[in-house]
Design a protein that fits this description.
The complex is a heterotrimer of chains A (172), B (307) and C (102). Helices cover 69% and strands 0% of the residues of chain A. Chain A has 172 residues and is mostly helical. Chain A has a domain of 86 residues: NADH-ubiquinone/plastoquinone oxidoreductase chain 6, subunit NuoJ (Four Helix Bundle (Hemerythrin (Met), subunit A), Up-down Bundle), CATH 1.20.120. The N terminus of chain A is likely disordered. Chain B has 2 domains: 45 residues; 260 residues, no CATH class. Chain B has 12 helices and no strands. About 7% of the residues of chain B have low confidence. Chain C is an all-alpha fold and 102 residues long. Chain C has a single domain, classed as Helix Hairpins, CATH 1.10.287. In chain C, 75% of the residues lie in helices and 0% in strands. Classes of the chains: A mainly alpha (172), B mainly alpha (307), C mainly alpha (102). Chains A and C meet through α1, α2, α3, α4 and α5 of A and α1, α2 and α3 of C.
């Protein structure tokens, strides 16, 4: 297990991770250029990977980086480069009052979830029990306890791959 | 750092011998060993030209990120039984996660140069690197199956009796070829091919930027060599008259030699052929090796060596 | 030691950001960004919950394992769709892409 023996108290790490992830997420949507937004998205993914490490899920963190930042972001960059036109991309100026509605909806939703969580706070665990979640335990659970989703996932993967290939094919 | 400097000198000398030349002799010191410093000084003084309308912040920050992600995995590679900085339980996956960052950074850099040639070179390089990641992962899978752990220290420990190159010889070959492709070295050199695309995805970088990228590239070479040593050549095990880290470095240099030699020997491979080979042939061989390993493990052939 | 509530708040905030992006932005690729953010928020939630259980479980991690794979697939197919839409209509402004027939 990752033994972080620096003297950074876990609360500080948590706050740092949260700020990075949330800021990057906001940037990803608001950045002027799409490419900057993609880079910001990658940063927020790395932030989430940091959270996974914090939560004793190192394998998942590495997987997140390898799959999301390594592959999904590449795909996104690719698409952005293929979809460029000489004029500007759709200017993100929402029409009258629209941005406000979006903010209200999203804000209300987020606040209500957070509120419910905070109200139920006393009943929820407030500190982590010492965990022993070795990576070797993932394997038996994946293949032993949940084999069906594994197989379905494999089929789904092949289907998605073929679908994307067929869709993106250029008929010459 | 020092290793990189040494590596570049070593490479040029070696290549020159192969090409029947003598190689760098003039830069002072015995046998031109100060050549890398001369190179570095020259590059620092060269003017850093940023192409017109290129994307400045990206252009300047990506090379640093490249070096960062090339240097980080060294923290998990064990040089000896207790000579490792961070003994991660998922060490191998960490290294692979870092290597999967390269294609996206190369793409961003190529795009940020805002000119045709680097961009094309970047695309080709991207295809090449992404295509060869998978055979690499799968051939490493056979090693992981043999060792029973993703922890690099455990993997080396499991090779006490026999180096993994023997049971999974096929995946050694696949891994080696795949790393040649990942490192963009000949014979998979098209992104760098001089007559074709000037200098590929780093065409527009000059001076200090190029030096940083160059650094990252050679760090990757060393990283891959040490990874091959850990996974297939038994890490630091060797007769006890030399301390463990020395064995490790010796083996790594041995591998690095074999990475450098093809550059002077083989002709270049065309990029579409290259990608095809990666996805079809290498992948099949890697998967075949996984099956072979499963068979070997289950029939207990390898129990004589404690696997 | 942050409590479970703080993790829920963080993932709720990410969810909110994602929904804002989903509802307001006109660029199809930005909407994809927002969707990925939402999926990541849910993943974070799963892992946090499974970690804070007593005793800590590995189930959340397994779920997130599948979720990462599924979300990556969905991003790939979504991007392919955006490419096709762009080829047919020369725009990726979702307001203009409102006719069902090519």
């Amino acid at each position: 297990m990752v033994a972080i023996s620096l003297e950074i108290p876990p609360d500080v790490t948590f706050v740092i991770l949260t700020t990075i992830t949330l800021l990057a997420a906001i940037l990803a949507l608001q950045a002027k250029e799409l490419i900057y937004g993609a880079v910001a998205l990658a940063i927020s993914f790395i932030g989430i990977a940091g959270f996974f490490v914090f939560l004793d899920a190192p394998y998942l963190a590495m997987l997140q980086i390898a799959v999301y930042v390594g592959a999904v972001v590449v795909l996104i960059l690719f698409t952005i480069m293929l979809v460029r036109r000489e004029e500007t991309e759709p200017v993100e100026r929402p029409e009258e009052g629209e941005g406000a509605v979006g903010l209200w909806i999203a804000g209300l939703l987020a606040v209500s979830i957070a509120g419910v969580a905070a109200l139920a706070g006393p009943n929820l665990p407030s500190s982590m029990q010492p965990a022993d979640l070795p990576v070797s335990e993932l394997g038996p659970v994946l293949a032993g306890q949940y084999p069906v989703p594994l197989l379905i996932l494999a089929l789904l993967l092949s289907g998605a791959l073929l679908g994307a290939l067929v869709l993106a094919k250029v008929d010459r | 750092m020092i290793v990189v400097m040494f590596l570049t000198w070593y490479e040029r000398k070696l290549l020159a011998r192969i090409q029947l030349r003598i190689g760098p002799l003039y830069a002072g010191g015995p046998g031109g060993i100060l050549q890398p410093i001369a190179d570095g000084v020259k590059l620092i003084f060269k003017e850093v030209m940023i192409p017109y309308k290129a994307d400045k912040p990206l252009f300047l920050s990506i090379p640093l990120m490249l070096v960062l992600s090339a240097a980080l995995p060294f923290a998990v590679i064990p040089f000896g039984q207790h000579w490792v900085i961070a003994n991660l339980d998922v060490g191998l996956v960490f290294v692979f996660a870092m290597t999967s960052l390269f294609p996206s950074m190369i793409l961003i850099f190529a795009w940020a140069s805002n000119s045709k040639y680097p961009f094309l070179g970047g695309l080709r390089s991207l295809f090449q690197q992404v295509a060869y990641e998978i055979p690499m992962w799968i051939s490493a899978l056979s090693v992981v199956m043999l060792a029973g752990s993703l922890n690099l220290v455990d993997i080396v420990n499991a090779q006490q009796k026999i180096w993994f190159i023997v049971p999974s010889f096929l995946s050694f070959i696949v891994f080696f070829i795949a790393s040649l492709a990942e490192l963009e070295r000949l014979p998979f050199d098209l992104p760098e091919a001089e007559p074709e695309l000037v200098a590929g995805w780093f065409t527009e970088s000059s001076g200090a930027i190029f030096m940083v990228i160059f650094l990252a590239l050679y760090m990757k070479v060393y990283l891959m060599s040490s990874l091959i040593t850990v996974l297939f050549l038994g890490g630091w095990w060797g007769p006890a008259f030399l301390p463990q880290p020395v064995w490790f470095i010796l083996k790594t240099l041995f591998v690095a030699t074999f990475i450098i030699i093809p550059r002077g020997v083989y002709p270049r491979l065309r990029v579409d052929l290259l990608i095809k080979v990666g996805w079809t042939r290498l992948l099949v061989i890697a998967i075949a090796n996984v099956f072979l390993t499963v068979v070997l493990l289950s029939t207990g052939v390898l129990s004589a060596w404690g696997i | 030691m942050p409590s479970l509530v703080s993790f829920i708040i963080v993932s709720a905030a990410l969810l909110g950001i994602g929904i804002y992006g989903l509802s307001v932005k006109r660029n199809a690729i930005r909407i994809l960004f927002a969707v990925e953010l939402i999926v990541n928020a849910a993943n974070l939630n799963f892992v946090a919950f499974s970690r804070y259980m007593n005793p800590p479980q590995v189930t959340g991690q397994v779920i997130v394992f599948y979720s990462i794979a599924a979300a990556a697939m969905e991003a790939a197919v979504g991007l392919a769709l955006i490419l096709v839409a762009f080829r047919l209509h020369s725009t990726i402004d979702v307001r203009k892409l409102d006719k069902l027939k090519g």
